[in-house]
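Handout, page 2. Input:
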Amino acid sequence: MFSKISETSSSSPTPHLAFLLTSFFLYFLYKKFTSYLRWKQSPLWKLPGTKQKDCWWLTGNFFAISKSPFMTLQQKWFKEANDVNIPFLHSCMLFGNHTVAVLDADIVKMILYESYTKDNSRFVKQMKVLMNILGMGLITYEGEEWQRHRRIVHPSFQPKLVKEALESTAPGVVKKFVDCWKKAGGNREIDVMTHFSSATLDIIGKAAFSHNFHALDSIEKWADAKDSKDESNSAEVPKMSDRLIVSFGNLFKFTPLRIILALNDLSWLDRGRNKARAVMKEAVSNILDAARAKNKHNDESSGEALSLLQVLLKANDTDAKVHARNRLNDEELQNEIKTFLLAGHETTATLCYWVMYILCTEHPEIQEKVSADIMKHSSHLQVDEFNIEVVEKMEYFDAFIKEVLRFYPPAGLVIHHTTQDENMKGCIIPKKTRIMIPIYLLHRHPKYWKDPNTFKPERWMEDSHPASHPCAYLPFSLGGRNCIGSQFALWEAKLLLAPILREFSIRIASSMRNTEFTLTQAITLKTKPRLRICVEKR
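Output:
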């Protein structure tokens, strides 16, 4: 009996498990201790910004920054430095991760124009959260794989092709959108972001993917509904039913747990995310199959414009001699569809949002100037007859859009990480430092702009560029990794906004008068609370 007990004890895994757990715990302590030492001894404490006494290694400024309106702490530190020429602002995130905000346009140029075509780039993005949603594509790839994707996708975004795709799809969507606003005009409150997201989804769906998301069906239901006696509910729009859009919405619910799992490569434990990804994969695969079928059956002599995805598929599928490295497989194509859907519709909808915000809350007097310029060039046109040639003739409207992008850039910041120690203007930036390019602050930097906090479209109608440095204006970023769809976004916004601003006068909803709006950014720059407006037919 005793011998059996002894034998069982000797083969027990408990000592081995205890050794592994102890080793893991000691390794964890070692990593955190070395992280703490790097944080404490970092040369970045010498920079303007947060001070070591004001933050703790574990949490840094994370909660202070996340609870404050967008960029308010950075603006406070900049004022405290009392030096317009300071190149950096320093802050700390969780677990001693240092962040350096770059305010010097020369350094911004150096970072953004660094070669991203090699796998040992000095600056990388490391977008773990987006990787878990979009997969690997133009936004998330680095090095040679990013270069390959950019090279293959770029021909589909030639201005001629973008123009044809937009002009064949946007006018019909815009007419439907304008008709909804006419039907529900007066005192009916409009949730600006929801409405423009629906319009841009339908435009990008048809122009880019040959797919109808039926997003405006929800706006039509809203317009057809009787006014609610409860004014607070009058702006509510029925939810969209498209499976791809629903799954996108589920994946972009950034709960603290979801973010922590993504940053620690544990997203596979997130059951909700896994289910939504499966739905999204199936929906995107269906879009890809449908575009291929259209290419197969379309008569090229019909004159019907191809979607950008159809153009990409024709180049990808028809030349049997093309090497595999110059093709995108189905998984890669699906990831690029998700990438462009997110970046394309979100950017344009956000730009339209800020146009409405400025015209309603900050500069209602400019509304008549914009409308007059649009009317000057389009009085002979029906709503569905606007085209790119016409909207590009509108000089004041164009200047107004550029100034909106300066004042409220859809992407308020971009993030990179250093892969080696960097000497930037005499300051040592250690390896693995989080580098923030604060587009919002650069667009208002007094070193580069005259009257930076004054909204002035006329500055864009002068002979020279209004900024004293070309890298002080970057609403779509700059360099090799600039937004490949920037021209698409600008033309789409103009085709959508020009008829609306000609047809309607815009005012803030009565329920939002005296509301204090603050800036916030998740994917793009927004206000909290979200803007609601009312419109009247001109």
